[in-house]
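Hi P.,

Sorry for the delay on this. The queue was packed all week, but I finally got your sequence through. Input first:
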Amino acid sequence: MNLSTLFEASLVRRSAAPALEFGAETWTFGELESGANRLARALLELGVRRGDRVAVYLKNRPELILIYLAASKAGFVFTPINILYRAGEIAHILDDAAPAALFLDKESDAYVAPLLDLRPAVRKLFADDLAAWSAGQSGEPLEGPAPEASDLMALVYTSGTTGRPKGASLTQSNFSANARSLVEAWRITADDRLLLSLPLFHIHGLGNGLHTWLATGYRLRLLERFRKETIVGDFLDFRPTVFFGVPTMYERLLETPPAEAREIGGFMRLFVSGSAPLPAATLERFEALFGHRILERYGMSETMMNTSNPYDGERRAGSVGPPLPGVSIRVCCAETGREVLEGVVGEVQIQGPNVFSGYWRQAAATEEAFTEDGFFRSGDLGFLSKDGYLTLEGRGKELIISSGFNVYPREVEEFLATLPGVREAAVVGIPDPVKGEVPAAYVALEEGADLGAVQAACPEKLASFKIPKRFTRVDALPRNALGKVQKHLLRTDS
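Then the structure:
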């Protein structure tokens, strides 16, 4: 299914319904539809053609949504750039994607303009001027054939924590399949209300938030970003039923006063977490405070959503649940390629309509990423339980092999997080002349907590080869925009 067909239920059949809130602005679905049609025509008039990349370097704002909708209608390839990226990272994506146009805001122009001076083929467009610039165009549907379901819809660049970001090529059908799966699995309807503070340059906000909204026609309040100082007020004012977040957001929400937490819990229906592991302690504390058990799921830029704890049924701490409808998950030995037994850790491999078509202009990387029978090698380590729940143990590249023993960093991190005074912890491998490598822990502590006490607690619960051989106290762990720990930055300190 292409996205025009998926979105028709909202943009056309619910045209008069309030759709989007942003600050003091409110848009109906019909206004979004006509605005996107005008923008698509304006871009076509500039010479942007089907298959051309249209890049955005923008914080969350309604114009970003209009650009996405225009791309879905005209067949442009939406190419979001992380708003935290700076010159070197932006230049890499501009050179790799070779977009016909780049939308940005005027406050970013000072450091983006020199990059575009060296790339005259990329047309610079300011999102601030979008409404006036496209106002003379017709808001009626575009003439001619709509994009095919198999057409490329977006290049979503990987986080680049282990190398230069690669463009994951996602089709219109990838997005529509993911949206329909989530709508079914999470019981999403037009009666829901979503408070969305996730960045739309990332697959979590884009693939989950934007698409479930447009697929069902519920009401959305978009925030520029998550602000811990105002988020409780946003909840109480908008009274959403659904919230998509990352673990660091939920840890901030644990600071909510109990009376307000109970009020929020009274009108909320579903809290979902992803993009980074959710500590079991956070899950339990949140349930005690808000009266809701967070639903944890598992996704990637290359695949969107793969598994989810059930809406009805056990939401298992430490697990990301069974596969979503239409998705196949298997766990294989990295060396032999054979499936392993239940409970045995191996590489997680994925197949389904959600899986991307390959890496942009990287045939060798694409070939390496897929097995001969068409499963995507995720690079994640995990194991399947007897009842089909998947538990992740970290990235394969993070596996520590110490004296021949496998050490899974997440297992040690989860244990450290249970100790008194530990706010968060990360474990990485560091070279050792005798054992090859050994685990090292970076720990952020509460005020007054003792790192020595943390270290002393390990021998009672951890096998000797799993105990970190070095403990380093840090103020906070380095994270990307979605809260994922950037362990390569810790290793530079080893």
